Structure formats: structure tokens, C-alpha cells
Amino acid sequence: MLKTIFLSGAVVNFLLVAVGGGVGTFLKRGIPDKLRKTLTHGMALCVLYIGITGLFSEEKIKPLVVILSMAAGALLGELIDLDKYLNKLGLFLQKKFEKGESESRFAEGFVTATMVFCIGAMTIVGAIDSGIKGNNTVLYSKSLIDMVTALVFASTMGAGVIFSAFPILIIEGALTILASFVAPVLSVSVIEHMGVVGSLIIIAIGLNLLEITKIKIINLMPAVFFPLALCYIL
């Protein structure tokens, strides 16, 4: 049963992002730099929209849970320095598979796409829904959105976006399987708080894409998981 669920949700998302990224990389050669920048800014606004809408919840959100999650997540992320390791992975992939690509753009595409596709309410809720109920509707919808987003990202940032499909496969698959085991302790409130924290991180991604900020998004990633404990402690 778990294997079927895993293939139905995470793998579909993986395949569509790879296809979208591949098409976008092919189209990149025919897109002027000025248009690429405008496309990036347009997608940044869409990312901000996704993040802002994810902040609204039918459940009563406890601000203290969100604040402590962000603080603890930032502390843990900086201690481990996830940003450094994920960027190193992006540069490693660039050297192996895309010799002619600008290193900074390849790594930027890989890291940015990975954060957008792997962090947020749809990822968390979709994987949990798949693991607990065997319902992949959310993940299927997310897959279509991600395919279009990957196409646009790849047309501006290059082939690094294609490789973001692999973290999707790992993270969504792991969350789906994990959810099937921890379902008894996952309340609606916990899931909603995780979604809100993830949405704040998505907003930060949008601000970075607009070149307003230079936030180390990856180092905030652990914050998404702290509501698992804080919702019960508080």
C-alpha cells in the first residue's frame, strides 16, 4: 500500500518537474535576458502569492508557536549551515552535468526551485494526506503547478531546476511514509501550523527572487518541523 501511495504522489511530482525543467532549459536559448528577468520577477510575485495565501488557516494559529519555530529553526539551520551544503550540492551537479552553465545560476536554479517545490503547505498537507488517507489529489494538483513553475524557472536560471526534482522525490516520499506511521499524533492544528511556517519561508523566497532581500532560505527550513513538538508543549 505504501509503495503504491509513494509512486502515485511523489513520483508524479518528480516526473512533471523534470519535464517542465527540461522544456524550460531548452527554451532558455531563445529568450532575451531582459525577458528572463521580467519572467523571474513575475514568478517571484506568484511565489509571494502562494506564501501569503498559505498564511490563512481555518484553525486558530498560535503566534508563539510560529515565532518559536522560526527562531529554533533558524538556530538549528545556522548551526548545521544547510545553505552551504545545498549550494555545494548544486555546484557539484553543475560540474558533473552542465559544463557550459554559469555556476552561480545553476546553483541558484537548483536551490531556489528546491525550496519553492519542497517547502510549503501543499507539500506538507499533500504528503500527509497521501500517507494517512491514500488521497493524492493535493499532490497531483501541486505537480501541475510545479511543472509550469519549473518551466519558467529553468527558462531563466537553467538546468539546475531540473535537478530539484530529486529532492521532491525524497522529501515528499519520506513525508508520505512518515505520515502513515505518525498519523495518530498529527492533529489538524499541527499540520496547519507547519503550513503557516512553510508559507513564511515561501514569502522569503519571493523577496529574494525580487532581489529585495538575501535571506538564507535553506537555513530556515528546519523551522517547518518544530510545530510537531511546540503545538503540544504550548
Structure explained in plain terms:
The chain has 234 residues and is an all-alpha fold. The protein has one domain. The chain has helices at 2-28, 33-53, 63-80, 82-97, 103-118, 121-133, 137-157, 165-182, 188-209, 227-233. Residues 1-6 have low confidence and may be disordered.
- Number of DSSP E strands: 0
Structural class: mainly alpha
Mean pLDDT: 82
Enumerate the spans where pLDDT stays under 50 for 5 or more consecutive residues: 1-6
The sequence of SSEs as H and E is HHHHHHHHHH
Q: Measure the end-to-end span.
A: 35 Å
User: Can you tell me the number of structural domains?
Assistant: 1
Largest sheet: none
* Number of discrete helical segments: 10
Helix percent reads over 70%
Over all CA atoms, what is the radius of gyration? 17 Å
Strand content: under 5%
Q: How would you sum up the global shape?
A: globular
